[in-house]
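JOB MANIFEST
job_type = single_chain_structure
chain_count = 1
residues = 451
[input]
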Amino acid sequence: MVPKSIMIGKMLPLGRLFFWSAILIILLNFFLLWPFSLRAEETYTFDLSEIEKKIYHLGGYVEMKPTIFQTRQESSLYRLKYHNGDLGKSLEEINLKLQLEGSYEKGIARLYFKTNTDYKISRLQDREKTDIYEGFISLSPTSAWKIDAGKKTFKWGKGYAWNPVAFIDRPKDPDDPEIGMEGIFAVSTDYTKSFDGPLKTISFAPVLQPVYDNVNAEFGKKNYMNLACKLYMLFFDTDIDFIFLTGGSRTTRYGVDFSRNITTKWEIHGEAALIKDFRVNLIEPSGKVSTVEYDATSLLLGARYLTDYDTTFILEYYRNGTGFSEQEMKDFFGFIDDAYRTYTATSNDFALQKAATLFDGNYGRANPMRDYLYLRIAQKEPFDILYFNPAITTILNLNDWSFSVSPEMVYTRITNLDLRFRVSFITGPKESEYGEKPFDFKIELRIGYYF
C-alpha cells in the first residue's frame, strides 16, 4: 500500500515544482538579459567610510536548488529506503536554503554566529530544519593568544574531498566539499609564535569537547569531556600539523598532515590518521551481526595544479582504514535483498528495519569502503567566455570500480550571484557501492545569492 503522504505528494509538490520553475525562469531572464553593463558608465566616487573597519557585520546567503532524480528501482538501497512506496521513474524536489551570519567586535572580544535553514519541497514529504551552525565568543588578549567558546567548525586537515584527521569536525560531503558544515560545541585556545630560521611559525591549539545528552550527542558515548590538540608548524615553507584526540566518547586517535607549494602553481598535501580500538558491526547475508575491533589507519595524498591556461586539477587518493571490504559490502547488499524478498512475500519488514539501523551507522557513511580516487578539473572562462566556469568531478571506488561523474557549469556575471547547473551520473555493477545507489543520476540547478 502506498503511504498517504506519497499519494498526496504526487499532485501537490509537482504543482509547487512548476510554480518554482516559473519563478526560476523569470529570475534567469532578469539576471541574464538585464543590461548591467550600463553601470560601467556611472561616475565613480570614493567614500573613506566604505573602507573603515566596522565593529559589526551582518550578511547571509539564500539559495534555491531544483533537483530531479532518476530512480533505480532494482537497487538494494532503493528497496531499503522506499520499499513501502513507489516513487515512479523520477523524483522531483526543490531545496531552499537561508544562511544568516553576523559578528560584533569590541576591544579584545568578538561575537560570531551563523544559522542555517533548509526547507525541502518533495512529494515524499516537505521538511524544514533550522540549526545554529556556529555561535561563539572569541577573546584575543594579545596578538599571540586567542580563546574561543561556543559552537564552531575547526576545519582540521589539508584534504579537499576528505579529511581523515578531522577528528572533531563533521565529515565533509565529497560530492560538494565546499558546502558549509555545522560546528561543534567546544572551548579552545590558540597560541602562536613566530621565529627566524627554518621554523618560522608554531601554534598550539588544545580543545575541550563535551559530549552530553544535548551537547554534541552524536559524537560518541555521553557524559564525557574529551581533549583534542593540534600542533602546527611552518617548517621550511611546509605546513605541518600534529593532531591528537582522547576521551571516553571516542577511542584515542592520532593524526598528522602537511601541505607544501612545490611551485607557485603546484601544491601537494597529505594526511595520516591512526584510530585505536575502532569498532564496527558487520552483517552476514544470513542476518548474523558481529562486532570487530581493530586499529584503523587512514591515509590521504593529494595535489592541486594550475596550468598556464587557468585549468585547475585536484587529485586525491583516500585510503579509508575504517571502511568495508568489497565482500563485506556485498554481504550487506545481499542481506537487504533477502530482507526485501521476505517483505514482499509476508509484509514483515523486521529484517529491513534491522538493515536500516545498520545503514544509519557505518554502512550509510559517504564513501563507506576502503580505497577512493577523487579528480576535479575546473576551467576558468574557456574561449574567453566571461563569467563562465565549467568543471567536471569524478569519485572512483577502487575496490569495486563503481563511480560517479558530475559535469557542471557555473555562471557568475552578477556580483554575489552564483548560477550552477550540474548533472551527476552514478554507475557501477550489481553489488557495488555506486551500483546499488537508489538513483541513476540527478540534475540540479543552484541559484545562490550572497548579501
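[summary]
Residues 1-20, 29-44 have pLDDT under 50 and may be disordered.
The first strand starts at residue 56 and ends at 71.
exit_status = 0
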